[in-house]
Each structure stands twice: as C-alpha cells, then as structure tokens.
Specification:
The structure holds 2 protein chains of 2 kinds. By secondary structure, chain A is mainly alpha-helical. Helices cover 84% and strands 0% of the residues of chain A. Chain A is globular, with a radius of gyration of 19 Å. Chain B is α+β, with helices and mostly antiparallel strands. Helices cover 56% and strands 17% of the residues of chain B. Chain B contains 4 helices and 3 strands; from the N terminus they run αβααββα. Chain B has helices spanning 7-20, 27-34, 38-50, 75-93; strands spanning 24-25, 54-60, 67-73. A 3-stranded antiparallel beta sheet of chain B has the order 1-3-2. In chain B, helix 1 crosses helix 2 (27-34) and helix 1 (7-20) crosses helix 4. Classes of the chains: A mainly alpha, B alpha+beta. The interface between A and B is medium-sized, with 25 and 15 residues.
C-alpha cells in the first residue's frame, strides 16, 4: 500500500485533535498581543500577534491536509473539487501527492515565518536597531523561508531541521532574557515552552527511522503550547 | 540614566503614585512622586480626567478657610493599573 505519511495508523486523528488545541492557544495569544498593540501602538506586539497567527495558519493547513488524507469522505469531496486540476489516469495518486506537497509547503512557510519573527522579537531591543536593519533582516528571512520551503518538499526533514535551528536560537535568547530580568518566572516558563517545541521538531526529523517519533513530536508540541497557555492564563488572571 | 518613559508608562507612574497614597493625593505631591514637571503633569492630568481615570476633588482642611484640591483615582483608573501590570508581565514573559 502506498503511504504518504509516517504517522502510525492508530494515531490518525489524534494529531488533528492535538493541533486543534494548539491552534486555539496560538489564536488566544495572538489576540491578547494584538489587544496590547491597539493600546500602546508598539510594533513588537503586532509582530508577536502576527507570529502566532502564522503558527495557527500553518496548523490549520496541516489539520486540513491531514484530515483529507486520513478520512475518505473528506478526501472524496476534495478530489471532486480539485478534479479539473489533477484529472488523469492515476488522478487519485496524483492528487494525493500534489495535495500533500502543496499542503506541506503552505504549512512550512507560515510556521518558519513565525519562528523567525519570534527569534527577531526575542533579541535584545538594541539589536533590532534601525529601520533599515529590520527591513534587511525581514528580506533575508522571507528569502530563506521560501528557499527552505521549496527544498523541504524534496526532503521533509530540511524544514524540521531549520525549525530546530531557529528554535534553539530562540531558546538561547529567552535564556539570556531570563537572566537579565532578575530570573523572571514567566520568562523561564516561556523558555521551557520553546524548549519543548524544539524537542518536538527534533523528534519529527527522525520519523523516517521510527514512526513513533511522530507521536513523541506531537506530544512535545502540545505540552509546549499548553505551557504557553498556562503563562497566558497566569498573566491575564493576575 | 534611566530610559525615557513612554506615554503609557508615565500614566502608569502617575496612577501608581496616587494608589500608593491610599487613592488620594495632593497635586504637588503627585508632581514629586511621579517625577514630572508642573506643565507636563497638568497635560497628563487633563487627559486622565477626560478618560475618567482620576477626579479632582475639593478637600476642606479644618485649619484653613479655603478648600484644597486633591486628586483621587477612580475605579476605572484602578482597572487601568491592573491592565497595565498584566501588559508588563506579558511583555516580560515574552522578552519584548
């Protein structure tokens, strides 16, 4: 049987549920950050909001593509809608391949964009410096995102490896912030959230070797975002 | 030297100064506590009164014939302080 995805069959659907939770958490943080931006008009809050919106967008695409691949009724509907584009003698197979690749591309671009934005924001303010510095960094980020997203379609682990590298830099930045802000507990928890998200991406790299790494990755990702939710609730309820 | 305070930080400092004095403070004391010039403080106070975060009250002092003015923080002002503290925590948590 031709398999396009690495998930253990029994886990089909559970990853969608995990990602649905993460989607909601990301939107909550994005909404609160946007609310702060409306109050004080400081750009970093708008960027943070955008980062979490990008994460939720990437997850939404992943949920959509996974649901289409796992569940036949959804797949039949999608095939019907896309038939004019992918019609041919092996249309079902062509469709699955094209659909999964397009879905993966549309998942990678926003998520990589989000990690890069968060990396940019987690740097100390003086390193963000002048407007031209920011513009040149953003231009470089966009180029890298598109390049990696195209390459990763040939080797999926390129995306997770790149994510892991960026996430490790984010963790390092948060560790420095934690030390500089008199060992702030919330910063410590956010740092740990990103450590867990980093572990999840490292797990996804090795899915080719053992499919249960996918489950481990999803669990780490969920716990990481649940920790972010805990920080959010702690701040908002204070 | 301390960094320049943003507009919201100035408002926070003004309201915190009032809150720390039990919710009521004389304008002169407020000027010293919030570390602002008379002119600047007046500008901000006008804005805060407009937004109903503070009110100016006449306070009759026993030994004096005339009433003196005091600044009182409103419930809305207290709510703003709470919101700002949350924003500050969020900012610190995400290293912004």
């Amino acid at each position: 049987m031709y398999r396009l995805f690495y998930t253990p069959t029994w886990f089909n659907g559970w990853d969608i549920i995990f990602e649905a939770f993460i989607f909601i958490i990301a939107l909550l943080i994005a909404a609160y950050s946007w609310r702060i931006y409306k109050l004080n008009k400081e750009n970093q809050f708008a960027y943070l909001s955008l980062a979490f919106i990008l994460i939720s967008l990437g997850l939404l695409v992943k949920i959509g593509t996974n649901a289409t691949l796992y569940f036949t009724p959804i797949r039949e509907v999608a095939l019907g809608a896309l038939a004019p584009v992918v019609a041919g003698p092996q249309s079902n197979l062509q469709f699955a391949d094209l659909f999964y690749r397009a879905g993966f591309f549309l998942q990678m671009v926003p998520i990589l964009g989000a990690w890069l934005l968060i990396f940019f924001l987690s740097q100390k303010a003086r390193k963000r410096l002048t407007r031209w510095y920011e513009v040149s960094q953003i231009a470089l980020f966009i180029y890298l995102i598109l390049l990696i997203s195209v390459l990763a379609n040939f080797k999926y682990m390129v995306f997770y490896l790149t994510s892991a590298v960026i996430l490790s830099l984010i963790v390092l930045n948060y560790y420095k912030t934690y030390l500089n802000k008199n060992l702030n507990e919330n910063t410590y928890l956010v740092m740990w959230s990103f450590i867990l998200i980093l572990f999840s991406n490292l797990s996804f790299i090795f899915v080719f070797a053992w499919e249960n790494f996918y489950i481990l990755g999803e669990v780490f990702l969920l716990i990481g975002f649940l920790l972010l939710l805990y920080v959010y609730r702690k701040v908002v309820r204070n | 030297m301390a960094a320049r305070r943003s507009r919201l930080e100035l408002i926070f400092d003004i309201l915190t100064s009032i809150q720390n004095k039990g919710g009521v403070i004389k304008p002169t004391h407020l000027m010293y506590k919030s570390n602002l010039s008379h002119k600047l403080l007046n500008n901000y106070m006008e804005e805060l009164i407009q937004k109903e975060l503070i009110v100016i009250e006449e306070h009759q002092v026993r030994k004096r014939k005339s009433a003196s003015k005091v600044v009182r923080i409103t419930d809305k002002g207290l709510g703003f302080l709470e919101e700002f503290r949350r924003i500050r925590e969020f900012t610190d948590a995400f290293g912004l």
